[in-house]
Structures are given as C-alpha cells and as structure tokens.
From TrEMBL, chains A, B, C:
InterPro entries: Beta_galactosidase_Trimer, Class_I_gatase-like, GH, Glyco_hydro_42, Glyco_hydro_42_N
Enzyme Commission (EC) number: 3.2.1.23
Keyword Nucleotide-binding among UniProt keywords: no
Active-site positions on this chain: E144 (proton donor), E316 (nucleophile)
Enzyme class: hydrolase
Sequence ranges assigned to domain Glycoside hydrolase family 42 N-terminal in this UniProt record: 10-393
Protein known as: Beta-galactosidase
Cellular component annotations (GO), alphabetically ordered: beta-galactosidase complex
Length: 632, 632, 632
C-alpha cells in the first residue's frame, strides 16, 4: 500500500483568543502541514454545565482550519471529564492500589468500570459525532489510555464488575477454584461476591487471581473504547483512531486496535530514554539528545501491527524539550527531522507534532511546541518545514513485509509481571532486547500479534517469553519453513498461569523438558561456552535435541531441531548477537556488522540509514552526519 | 542426648488426586524418609463451610502414610483461615501501619488480638486434636508466625487489647506516664482508653510506647499459641512444635518455645542470602549457590536453645530454587546434602524437605520440591537419598554443650529497632557478626536465652547489645569464671528503654561509665591502635579499668577487669577477630585460622568440617570439595 | 548596633525533681549563662485537664532562675497540646498527603487551619501572658514551625479554609480559572466549593493550584503566629521571637519575622550535614564532625534578615551528638566553642545550648546536653565556659552591612518545588551554592528579602532563581550602581507560575529572551568555553547583549550589560568561582583564594577566620588549628 505521507500538529483553539485562529491556520498550512488534531481535552468548554452544549466555537475552529486547507482529527474529550461530572458521579474516580481515590485536578480521573461515567462518555461522543460526523476527516477516541498508571482501578465499581466478569468466565466458583488452584492456601471461594480485587493482600495474591484482574482490566478498556467507536460509527464514516503512549503494556492494544482503522502513538524519544528505559548511565549519556536508537522503531513496528491493515501515525512527535522526564534536555539540531523520517521509514501515514504553540500556563509549560509561547518559531519549526519540502521528493515509502517477525503479546507482559520469579525479569525488556539485537544486525522487523495464524513470507520468527502459545500460532510455527526461535519461557504456562503437565515447552516433535527454572543475579551471569552469558533467567532442560549453544558446564542454552530453536535463558548482548547472526544466516538473510549508532530500515523499495549517534559515522564509504538520514 | 536423626518432607494430599497418595507414600518410604508434615494449609478442605467438618480425607491420608511406615506431623490450619471466616468476623484482618486492612487472598490474614478468630482457631485445633490426637506422632501449631510482617497489627482489636495490656501492666496512667517519661512532650495520659497504637505519629513516638507495643504484640503471639497448645494437650500426648522462619525477631521465640516440646524452623539458605542479609555484592556473588556460611548455623544453634531440652528440627529444608527472593538460583550440586548434614551436626532431630512435589499452580510454582511437578525426581531427591544412606552409618551426632555461649535477646532486637540511634545499628546484625566471628575461629557456639541463670560449663560468654541484663543473667555473669565480653550497649537501658542512672553499664565491681554515645558513618570508621576499626556505634567511657584495645587517639575500645571485658563499640571484622582470638585464648580455647569458606562444628564426639565455598579447599592436609562435608 | 553577646540554655524544670532547680540555676549562672528558655513543651503540666491551670510551679521555677540572676524566655506550649485537647477537638490533627491523620504521641500534632485549636492556642497564650507578661524577659511562640513536615495539611479544616482563601483572593471562579489556566485539561471550576486540596491527583495538579496551596499554607502559619503575638502583646512588652529550624522553606519566615522582635533558630551542624545536605560522601566524610562550612553561616545570615532590625539568636546550639540524623557522631573537640563564635561573628545576640541536662527518658535520650543525664559535665560544658570567659574580652562584634547581598525568596522555593522541570533543580540548593561560592572567595554576605526596596550600600547583588521579581526589587535593581547578577530562572514566572509574555527575563533595557529551557543529567553537564560547566538547568537565550561566558558551542551562559549580568544556567563550582570572582572584582571587592576549609566573616570592625577542616591550616602565615577561630 502506498500512501501519501503527511505532517500534522496538535492544536488547542480553546487555549487561545479566537482572533489567533485564522493566522495559526494559515501558518500551519504554509509550513506544509496536512492534519490538525483538536478537541481531546475541551470537554469543559464543549459542555460547561451538564447538558449545556457549546459546540459552536469548535465548529468555527474547524471551519477556519478547513478554510486553510487543513484536515481535522477530532478527539473525544473523555480523558478530561469536567468537574461537574464528579458531582453527578462522585464514585467515578479510579482508586489506587492503596485504596485512595485518584482525585480531580489533572486528567484521566475516571474508572473504566464505572457505568455512569461510561454512559456520559458515550453521550458526549454521540453528540460530537452527530454534529461533526460528516465534517471532520478523522476521529480519535479519548487519549493515551493507560498513561499515569490508569488501567488498574481498585474501586467499588471495578470490584463489582470484576466479580461479574469472573462469573461469566468461570460460571461456577468450583471451576474458578480449580483453575486458580485455590486449594493451595485455603483460598477457595463459595461465591463470586466473596472475591476481592487482588490488592493489599498479606503477601502475593494467587497469580491466577492477579492475572485475571489484569485481563479484566484490559477488557474494560476495550469495552469503553468499543462503545465510543460504535457511537462515532453511527454518524461518521471517517476513520477512527486511538492515540497510544509508549511502553504501556497494561491493556491489550491489539484488542482495541481491531475496533478502529488507525493506530497512533506518541513518540517522545528523549523523555522515553530517561523515563522508560533500564539502560545504564553510559547509554543514557550517549543518547541523551537523540533518544534510544531502537525504542521509537520498536513502537513504530508495534503500532503498524496494532493498526488495521498496518495503518498508523505518530500523533504526537516531540519537537523539542518535554516537561515530564527526570531530565528534559533539548534534542540535537536535526533530530526533529530525523525522528520524522524514521517514522515515515517505518510506515507512518502522518507525523503530527505536539504541539503547535507552547502553552504559557498549566502543567505543560515547559513542553516545547513548533512555536514558542510568544508565537515565534521554535527550533522544531524549521526542521518540520524541511521535512515538508523533502516530502515532495519523497522516496517511495512502501511498507513491504519484513523478513523477520517478532511476536509481542500483552498477556505475557501481565503474566511476567505477576510472576517474574526474579528481579529484572520483565517481558517488554526481553522482547525489546531481542528487537534491538535484530536491528543491530541491520534487519527490518515486523512485530506480530500472538494470534497470528500464518507466518508466510517470513524467513525468521522469534517468540521469546510468550507464556502461552495460541493454537493458531502454535500451528503456524509447526507448519512454517522459516527459522523459528522460541524461549526462554515460551509456552511455559497455561492460560491460568499454571505450569502445564507435560512440562514446557511441549512443542510437538521437539524433545525438551524444562526440569528447573532459576533466576540469577545480574552480577553472576552464566558463561556460555563460546562467549557471552546467560543473565537473569535460565532453564535447565532435559532433552535429546542438539544443543548448539551451551554453558561452560555443558548445559544446553540453545537447542536446535530442524528449523526450530529453543533458547533456554536470557542472553546477554554478545550471546544474543551470535544466536541471531546464526539464525538469520540460516534463514538466508545477510546480517550486517553495523557501527554502534547506525540503524537501517528497509521498506522494500527504499533502504533508510539512520545515524543515532552524537558524531558523524562513516558507513559503507559514506559519511553520515549525526542526526543524519540517508536513503537509497 | 543421643537421638535417631531422621529425614522428612512436607506433603499436601489435598493438592493431588487421592489416587496419587499411595504411590507418593511408598516413594517417600523408599527414599528413606521418616516424617511427613501435613494439613497446615488445609482448613478450607477440613471445614468447607462453617461447622461442616470433612476430616475423613485427612484420616485416609494419614492411614496411607502410616501404612507406608511413615510418621505424621499434623499442622493446625490456622495460618490460612477460609474465606467464610471473614464473613463471620469481618474485622479479623490485621491492619498495616498505614491503616489498611491486610486482605484475604494469600495467607496469615488475621490479627493475633482478635478474640473471635482466636476462638475459631482454638475450636478447629480442638476438633483436630479430638479426632487425631491419638493417631499422629507430632503436632505443629499454625505456621511461620511473623512471616510477611504479620506480628504487628494496628487494628481496632489490637488497640483495645493493647490498652488492656497496658492497664494490667501499669495499673495507673500515672505509673505509665512516669515509666514512659510522658512529661517530655506533654504526652501524658489520663485514661488508658486515650492511648493509641504508635503508628502514624507526626514524628517518632515515645520509644517506651513503641517498645511496649512490641512487647504486647509478642505476648499476643504467645497467648494465641498457648491456647492452641492447650487444646492439643487435652487430647494428645504427642510432642508439639511450631515452625519458625529465619530472621524473624518480632516476637519472643523463647516464650513460645517454652510452651512446646520441639522448635522447628525453615532453612532456605539461598533465599536468605538474597533477602535477609546486608552483606555486600561480592559476598552474595561468592555464596549465591551455597548460602551464607553462618546464617543457617546461627539459626540451628538458636532453635536448639528455643526448643525445650534442645529438641529442634528443620521443618522445611530448601531442596532446589525457591520462588520468593529477589533472585532464585539453583544450589550447587551437593548443597542439599550439605545443608542436611549441617543441620544434623548442629543437633537437628529431623530434616524435612519442603516440599514433596513441586506445585504446578498458585503462589509457589517455582519453589522446587523433591519431585518435579510431573512427578519425576528433581535434583534434591538423589541428594536426600544419599543422606538417607549415610544416616545408616551416622557419626554419633550428640549435642554436647559448646564451649562458647552467645546471648540472644528478642526484647533487645525490639529496643534497638525502636532506638537504633544510627542507620545500620541493628541488634540481630550485631549478634550475627559476633557469631560469624566466633565461627571463623573454628569455635562451636551455644546460643542462650537472656534469662539464663547459670553459665556453668562455658569458657567464653558474649552478650553484645543486650539492652537490659536480667537479674539471673547479671548474677551468672558476676559469678562465672568464664571469660565474658559485654557491650556495646549491654545493660544500657532500663526495662522502659530509659537511660539508667547511675549510667551504664553499671556492672558491680567494674568501674566504667558511658559518658557519651555516638553513631558514625560506615565510611568513617574509627581506627583502632592495633588495626581494625570501630564502625557504626561507639561509646565514650570514663573508667579506671585497663583498656586492652583503644583507638588511635587513646580512647578505650575494650576494657578488661579480671575475666570481664566490656566492648565500647561495634568492631569491624579485623578488630573483632583480634578481640575474640584473645578472649578465646584466655578462656583456654584454641582459636583456629580457618580458610575463608571453612566452618567447623564440634558436637562433642564428632568434628564436622564444612566447605561453603564454590571451590575445593585444602584444609588440614585434606582436600574438601565444594559442598563438601568431612567428619571425624 | 552593638549588643552584649550572651549565652543561654534550654531548660525543662518539669522534667526534674523540684529540688534540682536551685542547684541547676546556680550552675548555669556559674557557667556564665545569661538566658534560659523554658516552658515550650509543658502544656500537660500547665493545664493537666481542661481549665485546670497549674502555673505555680512555673512561677517558682522562674523565681529560682531569676534568683540566680538569669533571664527567662518563656515559650508558649502550643507545639505540644495535651491529649485531652484531642478529645475536645478530634479533628484538629493535620492530615498527610495520603489522607492519614497524623496522630497524637509525639509533637506538632495540629493543623494550622483548625479554628478550634487555634482558639485554644490563643487562650493558653493569653493566660500565660496575663500571669507572666510582666515577669519574663522574652517570649517564644510555639516551637519550630514546619519541623517534621508540618506545614502542609490535607485535613477537612484545611480544605474549607483553602476554599475561603481562594474565594477572597480571586473573588470569582472565572478569575481563578483564568489565572490558573484551567482550560488546559478541562480543569475549570464553577464553585469554590468544588476545589479540592492538590493531593492524590492522577498526575501532577495544575502548578498554580499547587502554588496557591503553598501560599495559603504559609499564610495559615502567619495567621496562627500573629494571633499568639497579639495575645502576648496585650500583656507584655518583652520581645517576642519564634524559634525556626534549619532548611525549612515551606512557609515564609519573613512574614512571621515581621510580626516579632527577634528571630531565633536551631543550629545543629552535624545533624544538618547528614540530614539536610545533598553533598557527596567525600564532603560528608570530611566534615562529619564539624558540619558543613557554610550551612550554619547561611542560616545565621538568613535569620539576621528575618529578625526585625537584624535581631537574631541561636536558640538551640548543638552541644554534642544529636539523636535524629542518619548518623550522629560527636563533634571534634572545640567545635562547640567554634560554632558559638561563628554565630556571634554573624551577629547573634545570644547562643543558647540545647539542652541543659541530657534527658534519660523519651525521644531525645541520645541528644547531648551541657550536662550528662547524671548531672556530670558533658564535653560541651567546658567549651561553653571557655566562650563565657572569652566573651569578657569580646572583640567588637558589630553587624555592619555586608558588601554582598543575596536575595532569598520563600515563594520561589515553592515555585521551584512545584515545577522543578528536572531532578535536582531545587531553589534552596541553587541559592546555597551561590552563597557557598561567595564565601569561598572570602566575602561576607547579607541575605535580603525579595521585597527589598533599596540596594544602597551593596557592591554586588545576586538574585538567582527568584521566579517573580517584586516591583520594589525590580526598581531597586534597575536603579542600583552595584554589580547585579540575575538568573538562572530569575523573573521567569508570573505570580500564578505562568510564563510571562513577553518572555523572560524581561528586564527593562536588557535585551534577552529565553527561548527555550532544558534540564540536563548531572553526568552530562555542558562545558563552558573557559572551563567549568553548566549543570542541571540551561536556558537558550536570544540576545544582542554581550556574552562574557559561553558554552563551547558559543551559546551564551552569562550576559552582561553595564552593571547587570544574567546567568542562563546553573554553574558548577569552577564556573561559579570565575563568574563570582569577576563580578566581585568589578564591584571593587577583593575576592580571596581561601584554602578549602577556611571561611571569613567580616563584621565591619572585626575579621573572623574559621578553620572548618579536621586539620590545622596555614593561612596568611598563621597556623589555625582545626576547630580554630582567629580574629583581628
């Protein structure tokens, strides 16, 4: 699919005098922007009092944007219900795991399980859809589900809904007791109404209890989102999106993704480096002004999988310093352009900068915009303009299937977090390290959902840490001719987070039994015979399969049987590189020995080369400046 | 006393299909086990609904075990009351120090002060004793009092009981005000009903208030345990035990120990190393797969003192990786045997492995058993079998009195925690370091209670940090011919945690006055004249006694008068070694210069040598392999 | 103004048998003390039950002190209301930010906004003033406002009072919504009664909301203190003081300072070094027994500004180890004298040692006094006596105006804490580092309030981080001929913590626009062209002014226009030293190159030299011992 690549921005007409709007729109159009997102925090201006709808100003704002030739994404304002909503629904607030209601005064102050609030959210969405359904070019539901830890709520509403969810799932407490193994510590229930939310227990709750609460919480998000989508659909044929945040794994994005046409996300490379990554200080120093070389790419590839038919955007692109990380440096000159091109290289339809003009008031005063608070051009402005010019001579940015597939499974993230078995054993981190390892070899990657039923077209497939392989994926793995690497911990659990018997990994035709799991201190990794180490997680395996990687003591690390490999531990960088290099080669691919800061994205027709480092790099005989992008 | 040394395991028939039981019992017997502990988490199966007693299955399980020649320890199931108990007694939950009820869903979810729950605990205990009192060979009350910080509860029930406890102790608020020094900040009370639990005060509460709350809390445990013991005694002459956890100091084990015949504890060397010890990363790396060389031995010696007539067991012996520490590595091959022999060397009657078969469900799925979840033998199985074979040629493991006595006083642990005066000043740690220092010199140690009235038979006695010397112990110290070392902080406090006047240590005939106490940064220890340092805690002493250790500035560190020494600070390893070496020599003992990883336990008839290191060690001309035990 | 310099102590007659009093008073007088503070924690003895006044014992104590020739400071006992107060006013407790009432059992257990308690505080104050107003020589209100984080309370009383405060300030919610920018996330209010306290919001509250809560909380302290002052004034002409703690910035000391004659504070150099300073371990090791070389001096200079007409005391001087820091070492011999002289050098009228006799009971047993608990002289006694002797030959300790002025603004501390924008960006720390930088150059400093209207007599003026310059100060800066350095972040905010437009710093006649702010990792500072670095905070400036310091990339760090400089970042020590040296030289001062441990205080007539190091230092050809003071 070849789409026009466009630029956009996020605009808050309600923040500015109405006589600014015309000039703002004109400057956006001059800059070369196509899209403007509006409305997603404006509920108190759209309905200042219950039932008092004030949509005219929004209509005028849209008209002005349209008048300048811009297209509009309208956000439903449900992430920021006004103060009067709380008077109507005093118990609508989410409750934290210590039992404190999470109060009004910022944003996302609602519990997904509160029916009264959900009805209000549907109502305002329906009203907006009725009024603007034929007018705006796209929609966004709510904003950043899960930001500020807002998926889990321990409210009364959540408790009631969780009990109902369990009753529907298990039908009887006997079935639930068996599934959870509640006999273990006399945790058996006679009534669904006796089951509480799994917070504030004396020691860890039953992991099945905790996992079901995470599943339930994710379902509540999908239910909430689905209701908004339905309300919009009834009055609009414009595509619908939700705008996701980075490294939010508390709900299943594939489930909400299926409800809509487009997935968008917020790419804040510098904020994420400081706030979302475990890498060491040397890494954070090196990339302080460019961001991690793989974190944005990972999410680009992830949201390409979340969006229906691969349709995805960056809805909020960092244009300068942000305000919310522990440290908020300015990007190196050129990075705003660089990040934009990187998104396009991974298939983004649109990259929208957050925000048009920096706000002089409230929580995000130190979050840069394309304009300064006084309306002068900020640094990002000229870089966006450069991209706009370059887009006219755009290389063909198709999104062909990549040669490598990497499974990402939200339920596994929950299962690992419920039962990490060792400090640092985090599912996202494991998958991300594998992704980074593939990228360091110059490979382009598709992230795929755990329900994928076919692996056709892939030469290499990885599914590290997927706790329970779905039947379709298991069949696809068995049937594929691609090189496949499973493990560690792949297929190690039942749906209820129990240990299956026969013991894992239980892959048909693959003789391996994990007889023991251990987790190890970061400072005592286990040396592999040929270099590198296993860290954090290691499985002892009884097997007759060939071990092509083993510890110095001879314990298998990587088993291989035909095209199927099983990795029994968490490899460090050196071991991972050797394993991936061998597998890629066996798959007929050509792994590269890239310089530290160089990454490549191959779209099928075009090969992009990105230098993420702070210095110029000579690669392939070509000097790539810092913040440099090359394509051919 | 010479007893037969036996092996055992912990078994949960309720976790497995009944048709497994027969084979399980047979395999236990074949392995050479003698004892099986059952029942301690089974309340929801013994009484699925209030009054609906279902004891038949347990009867059948016991019969099957008996049929295989095994002996049975029956645990009262009171650590895991069923969910219906909460419906009957909604306020039975303990409350944490922030005021949150500690909810159902795991275990130990009760407040020791709740009379309604205590009555239920007595009821089920009585019913079990009536039914099985003549049948089982031993009893266990509840399980692991204090695990998961469950001694202190800030519930309404605890508040009421604490007021009553204070009223009984002080008889008048005037007496309490005087004892506590409540005039200090106008904290005086007119009524016992005005006294609250000492949590959530603006800054630290009165230390006497905090200490009395700890005393009260400990008494509540003894009261709860004593009631169960009485209920059993009425129907059974089998010995009764409680199963303690490692490094739990929140209640006085000597008080509960006096109520029963046997003390048992849970020995998890690798979990403890990671989770319960302050030692540095190098230490944790070295012993990651063997456990700390002294931590288990310390508890073995402690529980020998807690058990009546020195009777003690390991009720739960780690048989492979556990699930609850920050990291959970596998033991080195041989360690399971090694730990078992170490326990026997310290006088254990029985070492029981936790657990028979690894559970495939619920909280402890990654806790190894002797069997894997699928019933195959795990690593520990063969090592247990080896011990069973070796036991037939058992060296005579008597428990003669050791030459060295070390006082351990729970009330001092509370006093130090209430008033540490400096970060890192922890009573357990102080005593443990002295114990470790003695062990590094090859000395065998008896831990003794603070009420000990005679020191006969000991050559060397240490009582570091015992805040208030009891009258019997003070008399024994004055009367003994043994070398005695007191301090730091020994006898530094009244019962109410006040400073006595005359000032400490106030030992008759020993001229020393602690005129000033200081606590010091770990990185600025005070150098001793002859090497080594004082760290953390240092007392300035006015004295006419001879200082046989002093700082480089000449301040006394160790005073000596006849056979009595007073240590004015917390010695580092080098200083401690010199002090202990001198004292042991003066006591007529022969301190050894052991290699780092070697420890010796002398039982009177047999000398055991243990190599705790990861490598073989040549000692006394003999090569001891890692995980090696030698005896002669 | 030349005043007699005096010594004093803090005494608690209610802690001791009445037959001790006479001898205590005689020993105080013999020691050379002039002042004794009493009464501030004695409410439960002054009024054991509601209305049951027992003032006679206090009268007798005062008579005895007077009889020995001592003068008395009487403290109102309102920091420690008795237990019966809580029965009368169960909701008088402050509430922490998690919603927990902060319970009785220590001290400062009240909410400043509780009218009922405030009336009680006024009542007891009035009664004491009536009885003792003509008798005592000075007064102290309450004690250590803000100690133990007691300024902010999230109680119902505070909520009601905050709403009223907002209503009075803004008059309409429209005005409030505009000032706060509540449109930002639909945070608009229709009623003041809908506004909650800014705790427990989902993510950060509106910074204007948070700042107004801090302003309100500070005003509540001033209201509480003002009421006590009025009650005393009605019956006494003796000077009134409040006794402040170190590094408490949660309320505006200038506001309370204006209500009274004298400011006093508590100087605990060793406690502060451990507990209140961010400096690294090497620094803390070096000064472990002397205290930070600048922290006490900073507060001395600060409280000279807080006290009316520069009148200030040290009300509590550390006399030996304290009990409340993470580590509590003993001072080096001589430090008690040293600290006393340092206070006099900065203008203290009186230095009072806390406390007379060490308490053998309650919370502060390990806090040294001039006497040991048994009444023997402690180390500090002889040093105090030495000062008393030296005072007779006192150098003339006038307090002339210093050549350098440094603005300290409590509201800026609140604004920075609400919106630090980067970890480590703390207002107090910034000002303190500038102060330390000035002191290292041998300069004496006056700290001045942000409302200062004239800078006459100063050669050099600094106002780093003052978020909003007051109109008087702005005019003074514009009008002065002194060298002035503003920035970073000076005048960067409106009163509502918004970004002003035109953009900061907006100093008339100074062409500079801060176009971007960034915060940076401590380990990635920005190198300055001529050495040193900018750390933590950096502003990008558009300017036509001359940059006399710039980054290696040429970005301005320090702009200079005539006598006005603007510093665009947070300088490290090397850069700061160069900047201050240049400015001081331009101001006609003579910056010195002092040894690391030497500090100088010039009072106009006398120059004191202090050696804060642990070793003797040769300075100006003279050997100054450790803990040494020289004057000429």
């Amino acid at each position: 699919m070849s789409l026009q690549r466009t630029l956009g921005t996020c605009y808050y007409p309600e923040h500015w005098p109405e006589d600014f709007w015309e000039e703002d729109a004109a400057r956006m159009a001059d800059l070369g922007l196509t899209w403007v997102r509006i409305g997603e925090f404006a509920w108190s201006r759209l309905e200042p009092a219950p039932g008092d709808l004030q949509f005219d100003w929004l209509d005028r704002a849209i008209d002005i944007l349209h008048g300048a030739g811009l297209r509009v994404v309208l956000g439903t304002p449900t992430a920021t219900p006004p103060r009067w909503m709380l008077t109507k629904h005093p118990d609508m607030l989410a409750v934290d795991d210590e039992g404190h209601p999470r109060k009004f005064g910022s944003r996302r102050h609602y519990c997904f399980s509160h029916d009264g609030y959900r009805d209000e959210a549907i109502r305002i969405t329906r009203l907006l859809a009725e009024r603007f359904g034929g007018k705006v070019e796209a929609w966004q539901t709510d904003n950043e589900y899960g930001c500020h830890d807002t998926i889990y709520s321990y409210s009364d509403a959540a408790r009631v809904a969780f009990r109902d969810w369990l009753a529907q799932k298990y039908q009887s407490t006997d079935a639930l007791n068996r599934a959870w193994g509640n006999v273990f510590w006399s945790m058996e229930y006679d009534s669904f109404n006796d089951i509480d939310l799994p917070n504030l227990t004396v020691t860890e709750p039953n992991p099945a209890h905790a996992l079901d609460f995470r599943r339930f919480s994710s379902d509540q998000v999908a239910r909430f989102n689905g209701a908004q989508v339905a309300a919009i659909r009834a009055h609009s044929s414009a595509p619908i999106s939700h705008n996701y945040m980075g490294r939010i794994v508390e709900f299943d994005h594939f489930a909400t993704g299926r409800q809509m046409e487009i997935a968008t996300w917020d790419s804040y490379p510098l904020g994420f480096l400081e706030d979302r990554l475990e890498d060491d200080a040397a890494h954070k120093r090196r990339y302080a002004r460019q961001g991690d070389p793989d974190f944005q790419a990972f999410h680009h590839d992830l949201y390409r999988a979340v969006g229906k038919d691969g349709r995805w955007w960056v809805m909020e692109q960092q244009p300068g310093p942000v305000n919310w990380a522990p440290h908020n440096p300015a990007p190196l000159p050129g990075m705003v352009r660089f990040w934009t091109w990187e998104a396009f290289a991974h298939g983004a339809e649109c990259v929208a900068y957050f925000r048009w003009r920096q706000a002089p008031f409230a929580q995000e005063q130190y979050h840069a915009g394309l304009l300064r608070p006084d309306g002068a051009e900020a640094e990002g402005f000229a870089e966006a303009a450069q991209v706009a010019r370059e887009l006219k001579h755009l290389p063909k940015v198709e999104s062909a299937q990549a040669p490598v597939a990497l499974v990402f499974d939200y339920a596994s993230a929950w299962g690992w977090s419920v039962q990490p078995q060792g400090a640092g054993c985090d599912y996202f981190r494991l998958v991300f390290e594998v992704y980074r390892g593939l990228r360091k070899l110059g490979l382009s990657v598709d992230i795929i959902s755990p329900d994928t039923a076919t692996l056709d077209g892939y030469a290499l497939v990885l599914a590290p840490g997927v706790l329970t392989l779905s039947e379709p994926l298991k069949a696809a793995i068995t049937g594929t001719k691609a090189q496949v690497i499973l493990g560690p911990r792949t297929n190690a659990k039942t749906h209820a987070l129990s240990t299956p018997i026969p013991l894992p990994p239980a892959i048909a035709g693959f003789d391996a039994t994990i007889s023991r799991v251990e987790t190890i201190r970061v400072d005592t990794p286990i040396a592999a015979k040929n270099g590198g180490h296993v860290k954090l997680w290691f499985e002892q395996i009884t097997t007759s399969e060939m071990a092509i990687e083993a510890t110095q003591d001879g314990a298998p690390i990587l088993l291989q049987s035909g095209n199927l490999g099983y990795l029994a531990g968490w490899p460090d960088e050196a071991l991972l590189r050797r394993i991936l290099t061998r597998a890629a080669t066996a798959a007929g691919l050509t792994p590269l020995d890239l310089p530290q800061d160089i990454r490549i994205r191959d779209t099928g027709q075009t090969q992009f080369t990105f230098n993420h480092g702070p210095d110029p790099v000579i690669y392939n005989g070509q000097t790539i400046p810092f913040a440099g992008v090359a394509w051919r």
